[in-house]
Specification:
The protein is of the alpha+beta class and 478 residues long. Helix content is 25%, strand content 24%. The strands form 5 sheets. An 8-stranded mixed β-sheet has the order 5-4-8-2-1-11-14-13, with no helix packed on it. Strands 9-10-15-12 form a 4-stranded antiparallel β-sheet, with no helix packed on it.
Length: 478
């Protein structure tokens, strides 16, 4: 995500209803075996859920422009990671029915937690179907009112949460899953999503478009957009690409945006030469006319506001494409590790500048270091734990200091361990953890392993301190 983050702090206007169906079979395990309501992330205690691992989401949604109503059903294939009498999913819309392996089961639905009464033994797999209908624009969670739509266009994009507004999910980066979506809207609209366009079936005034990703993803990276779009597609380096620009933009802006979107394949080619093989099998991008205010690294197909075609716009595309490795393929272990996503994406903005006639990452590092005095608030944040009180963490984890100081830390690390070891570290990180997760502690350990140096003082200064790093060679300065 880029730093142009627009946060809406609006209270939810209503709570989803509870429901009770036929009682499930009796459970004979431990006394309190229901899976934990959260996966264990202190920043967002209700995110994700204990006791389950999701393999796939098959989403079937219909969106009605004008009324803003979204209805449908999602089939979830999951496995119990422990014996449970039930489990939770993260979801905001009212739920009418839940089935597990074809049998209707009891459930309770608070504002965010959909609690399902279905016993599973450790290792058991199940197909869970949730049916729902509601107005996503009326709901908020963790201070976020994320639904972005008008009478002509809708885009389901946001971070760190988005899935619960349009499909039930185990909503945390630790649980990646395959995503297939079939979205029904008026036939005059086009639907854009992650992965590959599978089918578009028109029936009378409606069209159902199916997109499918071939690699698992974090729930917030799943997205769909529906509206009037100009489409371009092709194949570069043997890889298909698909880009779209909203026709809600003025004609001249549409043309500019399409020129920028069509740069995606060549910018991705440049990143591959630096980072290594692209971790997915398709790419692209979408420019919306909605007033989103930020760009987001949706897996395989980032979304952007209108940005023009200048150097800043190109660097934003580089930023979001770099996230395909740092954030999408290698997701954070927990939200405290967000600097690993945003720091690397910011670093590659600067490295792109370095390799295209601008100042080097070292020059930009020293410029930024010199800009802020020691008593400036810029330094008064622990980059590797940016939400100290675990309140309003959405604002803290996307604070510009996480981006800028994360990028500075990586530029300084490059100075400290040298280009060769820095490149090896980068390649090892995205290769060894491809399709998985990574934490700050794991990154620090790998950096020390690759370089053979004790970097504890360096990382303390740049990531774990709330003071300005000393201007020393040991800190990648001096």
């Amino acid at each position: 995500m880029t730093r142009r983050r627009a946060l809406a702090l609006v209270l939810a206007s209503g709570l989803a209803a509870s429901s009770l169906a036929a009682a499930p079979a009796a459970y004979s395990g431990p006394a309190d075996p229901h899976g934990a309501p959260g996966i264990g992330d202190p920043y967002f205690p209700l995110d994700g859920n204990g006791g389950i691992d999701v393999a796939s989401y098959d989403i079937h949604d219909r969106y009605r422009f004008g009324t803003g109503r979204l209805s449908g059903w999602t089939a979830i294939r999951l496995t119990a990671t422990e014996s449970v009498s039930g489990f939770d999913l993260d979801f905001l819309l009212p739920v009418s029915r839940v089935e597990v392996d074809g049998r209707r089961v009891a459930f309770d639905h608070g504002h965010h937690e959909l609690s399902i009464d279905a016993p599973l033994d450790e290792g058991d797999s199940a197909r869970v179907v949730v049916r729902y209908s509601g107005l996503p624009g009326r709901y908020s969670y963790a201070g976020e009112s994320n639904w972005l739509a008008n009478d002509d266009e809708v885009v389901a994009m946001n971070q760190p949460h988005m899935a619960p507004w349009w499909f039930p999910a185990n909503d945390h980066p630790l649980d990646k899953a395959l995503v297939r979506m079939s979205i029904t809207v008026p036939r005059s609209k086009r639907v854009i999503g992650n992965g590959h366009l599978v089918d578009r079936e028109v029936r009378r005034d409606l069209a159902t478009t199916t997109w499918e990703a071939t690699e698992p993803m974090v729930p917030y990276l799943a997205f769909f957009a529906a509206g009037r779009y100009e489409i371009a597609r092709g194949r570069t380096d043997g890889r298909p690409w698909y880009v779209a620009v909203s026709k809600g933009l003025p004609t001249s802006s549409q043309q500019e945006a399409m020129r920028l979107m069509k740069q995606t394949p060549q910018l991705l080619h440049w990143l591959e030469r630096v980072i290594g093989p692209y971790p997915f099998d398709t790419t692209g991008g979408l420019t919306t006319a909605l007033p989103v205010g930020f760009a987001l690294e949706n897996q395989t197909r980032p979304t952007y506001p209108f940005m023009g075609t200048g150097a800043g716009a190109v660097k934003t595309v580089v930023h979001e494409l770099a996230h395909q490795w740092f954030g999408d393929s290698v997701a954070v272990e927990g939200w405290a590790d967000i600097w690993l996503n945003e720091g690397w994406a910011t670093y590659f903005e600067n490295f792109y500048t370095e390799t295209h006639g601008g100042p080097t990452t070292d020059e930009l590092l020293r410029e930024g270091y010199g800009w802020y005095d020691a008593d400036d608030a810029f330094w008064q944040l622990e980059v590797a734990d940016p939400c100290p009180d675990h309140e309003d963490c959405v604002s803290w984890i996307f604070d510009r200091r996480v981006y800028e100081r994360g990028g500075m830390a990586l530029a300084a690390l490059r100075n400290r361990i040298g280009d060769a070891d820095f490149t090896t570290l980068m390649h090892r990180w995205v290769t060894d953890r491809r399709g998985g997760n990574g934490s700050t502690a794991q990154f620090e350990a790998l950096a020390e392993s690759v370089s053979g140096a004790d970097l504890s003082g360096f990382f303390d200064a740049w990531l774990h301190s709330t003071t300005k790093p000393a201007d020393t060679v040991a800190n990648g300065l001096g």
